[in-house]
Structures are given as C-alpha cells and as structure tokens.
Amino acid sequence: MGFRNATDVFVVGGGPAGLAVAIAARARGLSVTLADGSAPPIEKPCGEGMSPDTVAALHLLGVSFHRDDGVPFRGIAFVQPGARAAADFPHGSGLGLRRMALHERLVARAEDCGVQLLWRTPVAGIGQNEVHLAHGESHNARWIVGADGPGSRVRRWLGIGSRRIHRRFATRRHFKIAPWSAYVEVHWGSCAQAYVTPVASDETSVVILASCAEDADFDRTITEFPEIESRIAGASLASRERGAVTSQHELTAVHRGNVALVGDASGGVDAITGDGIRLALRQAQALAEAISRDDLSLYARAHRKLARGPMRAGVMLLLLDRHPRLRARVVRVLAANPTLFEELLAEHAGHARRTSLVATGAQLGWRLLAT
Q1: pLDDT tens profile 178-231
Q2: Contacts by 252-258, CB closer than 8 A, 24 or more apart
Q3: Are residues 274 and 235 in the same domain?
Q4: 148 beta partners
Q5: Contact residues for 293 (Cβ-Cβ < 8 A; gap 6+)
Q6: pTM over 0.90, yes/no
Q7: Which residues span the domain enclosing 134?
C-alpha cells in the first residue's frame, strides 16, 4: 500500500460535473482532490449549445470566457418540413462553444483555486473514508463524490440501481462553415433529430440523435434534412466524428453514507432537452453546500427538485419524437404563435411563474384543439 494522503473531498471523474463540484467545494474552504483516468481536455459528443442560465452558472464558479470563445445565440428554433418556430431566451444570450474549450476553462479554474488534479489516474475502488487508486496509492477522504458519467463505477460500488426511461444514440460532426442562424436549430425528421449549433465564427456543429444506432448513422440520416445537407455540402470537417449513447433515467438514491453522485452518474436527462450541463452545474453547487453543512440529505432533496423540470421536458420532447402528427401540429402552432413558444422556453429555463405555466399550457392545448 502506498503513502496515504488526506483530503476533505475526493472527486472521482474529471468531466464538467466533477470539476464543478471540486471548484464549488474549494469556494467553501474544503480541500479537494480529483482523479480521472484520462487527461484534459476531455471530449464528449454533445450539442455544445449553452443556455444563458448555464453561462451564468459557470460565471458563479468563476469560469470566464475569452472574447473569441464560441458564438452567442439568441434562442431555440424547431424546424420541420413546412414550418419553422423560433423563440428567444427571456434573459441574455446562449453560447455555442466546443466541449473541449469548455473543459479547458473548467480545468484552468480548478487549478487556480487549488484543486489537486490527478490526471491519468484511474480509481480502482472505494472504502469507508478512502479511495484506492489503480497504481496502489490510497487517499483518506471525509467525503467521496462519484462524477464518473452514465456508466458510473462508483454507483455500481454503492449498489444503487437506476430506472431507465429511454436510451438513444448520437453522432456529431463539426464543419468548417460559418453559422447560418442566430439560433440553435432542432430539425425534426421521421426517425431522428438534427441539432445545429454555432460554435465559432467559421464552424458549425451538427448532431444526429435517434432511438436506434442505425438511424444515428450520419451519412445515412442526414438525407432526412435536405436544408442542412445542402448547407454543409462541400464543407470540410473540422473534427473527427464522435458517437455517444444518451439516456433519460432516474436512480433509487443519489448518496449512500459519505458518498454522493453528481452529473450523469446521478441520473440523466435525454440530450434532446439541452439541459445536461446546466443540471450538472446546479447539482454541483447543491452538493458542495450539503457537504459544507455535513448533511447529504439536503443534496438529495435539492437533486430531486433540480431534476423535475428537465425530466418533464424530456418526457414531453420524447413524446413529440414518437408521434410525428402531434409534433407537426405543435410546431405549426408555435410557428404561428411565437410569444407562446417564448413563454414555454422561459418556463424551461425556470423563469416562469406557476400561474404563467398553467396559462401557457392551457393556451397551447387550446391552439392544438383549434388546428
């Protein structure tokens, strides 16, 4: 057994969720060690469009962006044959940013605030108040955080089960082409969605998301989206294609003893919601606060509350995915009533009052009945 180190918080996993917990814990005066088997920057296929609330949550952690980082966007657009509906965010602009650039900024912030970062250091197991590294060293820790993604080993070591609601497949490519829209566009096809996100002044991200792996094949499925296909025709690739599996699922618990789970390790929302990073950042703050107060039950309650809205949005959007006729009617209604779409987007971002949400839902239902 190697030399035993001691820390207040040991974080397993160095993605955005793990780094956010580490930064938030350091802000509360706790010593933090983080280990990951990979080395930064860590890449992961995703839509790469961050809402204004996500950008605000990063600023709260002290993460700043350079002037040339990414591209601002105004809101979300739903696109299908014969209809296009667009809505602006209620407050501020979103930011389209390469996932690797986001990770670099988080790593820099973690280094600045004194997190001990152990890259290329896999974790082999955990015990009571200790973490065992693959090369034989052990660390004593008062609190252990599993931030090791949807296939979390920490979750398996704890014996915490999950209930999967839906699993889907994604592929992403970056193209050397200037953004053609001020919105993140969600294009709906018969068997897949395509997400178009501006990530640089001369670069655009396109993600194909489908319920089966065959329909997530980029070259096969892009033909469902002739508008996108025509725009990227002849454009060179700015990165190699990456694939991923996304799932919407809940866990039976998000902590056990002195070990807590955060980010995708603690459950997940479908990528269609665009809420993964925002949710992880908010969970990270809630977990750091609970740790500082020696009470993980506070985190469990906050986690349930934070997940409620994104899970509801995921169920609704997956329903539209499975029912093309209903989706077509909804997009037409939103296209004809942009204020209604903006109210729904405000609710999704957490800026709508309860009475406003009920009224918006009733109005949408009435418009659907009238079409």
Answers
A1: 999 999 999 998 889 999 999 999 999 999 999 899 999 999 999 999 999 999
A2: 252/160, 252/161, 252/162, 252/163, 253/160, 253/300, 254/160, 254/299, 254/300, 254/303, 255/296, 255/299, 255/300, 256/158, 256/159, 256/160, 257/128, 258/128, 258/129, 258/142, 258/143, 258/144, 258/296
A3: no
A4: none
A5: none
A6: no
A7: 4-69+98-164+249-316
Residue-wise burial string across 285-309, b where 16 or more C-beta atoms lie within 10 A, e elsewhere: bbbbbbbbeeebebbbebbeebbeb
- In this structure, what token pair is assigned to residue 230? 């025509």
CA distances from 334 to 80, 185, 342, 344 (A): 12, 14, 9, 10
Cα separation, 322 vs 222, whole angstroms: 19
* Model confidence pLDDT, tens digit, residues 250-271: 889 999 999 999 999 998 877 7
**In-domain check, residue 78:** no
* CA-to-CA dists, residue 263 to 172, 254, 266, 345, angstroms: 21, 10, 6, 23
Tokens (6 digits) for 43: 């890449």
Is 38 domain-assigned?
Answer: yes
